[in-house]
Amino acid sequence: MTATFKALSVLLSYPTDDHKAAVGEIRKIIASEGILSSGAVASIQPLLDDMEALDLYELQESFVLLFDRSRTLSLNLFEHVHGESRDRGPAMVDLLETYRDGGFDLVSSELPDHLPILLEFLSNRPIDEAKEMLEDAGHIMAALAERLHRRTSDYAAVLAALAEFAGVEASSEMVKELLTVKDDDPEDLEALDDVWKEAEVTFGPDPNAGCPVSRDLLASMDIPVSQPAAASNE
Q: How many domains does the chain have?
């Protein structure tokens, strides 16, 4: 098991008190496991500092402003390559089948391509397989890192660390192509309304399951978890 991917899944999930309590353990995991470079580990520290020090409401507000109100910062990976095209549905089904073949059952209202869920799955796969899957999405993560950097967000370090692990450079042509899309304005409420009017697609059995959380990691820290599980491994 690769606990680093679980830790990064937590960092990219909607902040909760459980997450704040887990920061110390996350520090130890990403520093000791050796999956990320020392530079990547160092760059993530400011985000961990904020998660420890800032008020939970402030953390949640910042998260929503970035990832829920900015489509160009969506953590649903296929949003950036398929958008609303017909290719998105089959790609989603293929990914869901990959999860099931790996003994990983999605029990969240989040879509299969939601990055924290993908990281949860990869934490229980061989490291070579994890690297290969992240390579496929590396240009998306590099583009997200750049967009977050432009907004001076500490979350940029997490996406940059994943892109670095995948071996994808921000200067690649695929990254540049993604960055040609104009950034969303999170204060444009009319545009936000248009997004919410679109049909909701649910791949999990529970539409009220909420945001995905790395349950196994939090449980291993003896931290009580109040939200329902995002996924399970058989």
A: 1
